[in-house]
Amino acid sequence: MEILRDRSLRAYNTFGLPCSVRYYAEALTADDLREALRFAEEGGHPVLVLGGGSNVVLPADFPGLVVRVALQGVELLEDTRDRCLLRVGAGEDWVELVEYCLARGYFGLENLSLIPGTVGAAPIQNIGAYGVELREHFESLEALERKTGRIVRFSNPECRFSYRDSIFKQECRDQYVIISVTLKLDKRPALVTTYGALEGELARMGITDPSPEDVSRAVSNLRRSRLPDPAVLGNAGSFFKNPLVPSEVFSGLKSRYEDLVAFPGPENLLRLSAGWMIDRAGWKGVRKGAVGVHTEHALVLVNYGDASADEILDLARQIQASVKHTFEVQLEIEPRVY
Ligand code: FAD
Ligand code: EPU
Question: Which domain holds residue 176?
Fold first, then answer.
């Protein structure tokens, strides 16, 4: 494996942020990863693990080693009448994997169509969309422990998945590199079409008895109409999480804002729509220099060309302060900020 010097990561993050890195390597195997980590350890260099770069805010300079996880391969571990187990290399592309599964009749991922990034990053924040989260089809993963180089298996409960969260963002943060993910998929479709916008889109398409392919198409239509394509306008998807609040807080806000949007959360809590609050606070479409709030979705911050991480984070702080002032709710940033 080649370790390259002085590279730019602008093309390797969907925000399109400039980021100069001292060392850069692409790991195709677990041994490549071990070699890269040994190199960093011996040189005393900090390490940043990168997948598709679609959920990161990168710094202008990273004075260490960036390792891009590029392990490939899809392996059918079990195949019965009702379900199958698929082990997928962490560097495989998530969007292509969803298409691969649909084409073979392995169902369950259709609501997660078109989410950019790698398979290995999907468990980090338990990716979710249109009523489905990764954890519902996640069996286990294999990860390389950064300190020792040994391979460890994590079962579904051991990953401690919750909304946009897992053990890898908490106590195991920066301790493991995920090398493969095993998914459990249905051979008989069990469609989830209850998410309001998805129901609406299927109706608009004139579909009353949808197939998994129809659901995938409807989700793709919605995503294309609401979210900017990073190839055209730099972004990292939702910039903030939807905050969870107790029902008293929700009722207090609802009495002041009749059209407040919220969804049921766990344990009688409610998940407020951060996009609605940012929109209502007047931020939708606001542009400040090279950064802005997307014109079609207030939860998405965008790079109009040559933005820096500092400009994005400065805009994010202004939005957080404004939402806090208006709704007394603290917004938490979703992507990983380095
Ligand atoms: P990266 O951005 O490269 O990395 C993200 C984090 O994971 C970093 O901290 C990195 O160190 C870590 N990481 C990456 N790979 C590994 C690995 N193999 N082992 C250990 N750590 C690793 N997310 C959703 O949940 N739902 C959505 O609907 C959604 N829509 C999006 C739409 C757009 C237009 C964009 C740009 C993003 C969207 N996202 C969404 C966010 C993003 O797609 C997901 O978080 C995705 O899983 C990130 O994958 P990645 O490979 O790009 O990760
Ligand atoms: N809304 C507004 N104004 C806006 C945007 C949204 O009022 O500018 C309101 C609308 O009422 C809309 C509601 O917010 O119906 C919800 O919007 P949307 O369906 O787009 O969902 P979201 O809560 O904003 C979440 C995820 C997305 C995921 C979609 C679909 C988070 C932080 N974001 O967005 O995930 O694709 O649901 O399930 O949970 C991501 O994580 O990067 C991401 C894009």
Answer: 74-186
* Positive or negative: CA dihedral 149, 37, 48, 87: negative
Query: What pLDDT does 112 receive?
Result: 98
- DSSP symbol at 242: P
For residues 193 and 202, the answer to whether their CB atoms sit within 8 Å is yes
pTM exceeds 0.90, yes or no: yes
Per-residue model confidence (pLDDT) at position 327 = 97
CB 86 within 8 A of CB 183: yes
| Structural contact between residues 44 and 53, judged by C-beta atoms closer than 8 angstroms | no
CATH code at 82? 3.30.465.10
- Which residue owns the Cα nearest ligand 1 atom 25? 127
Instruction: Assign residue 39 the CATH number of its domain.
Output: 3.30.43.10
Ligand 2-lining residues (CB < 6 angstroms): 129-130, 197, 226, 237-238, 241-242, 261, 273, 275-276, 279, 284, 297-299, 334
Q: What percent of the chain has pLDDT over 90?
A: 99
- How large is the average pLDDT for residues 44-73? 98
Residue 22 annotated in active site: no
* pLDDT score, position 111: 98
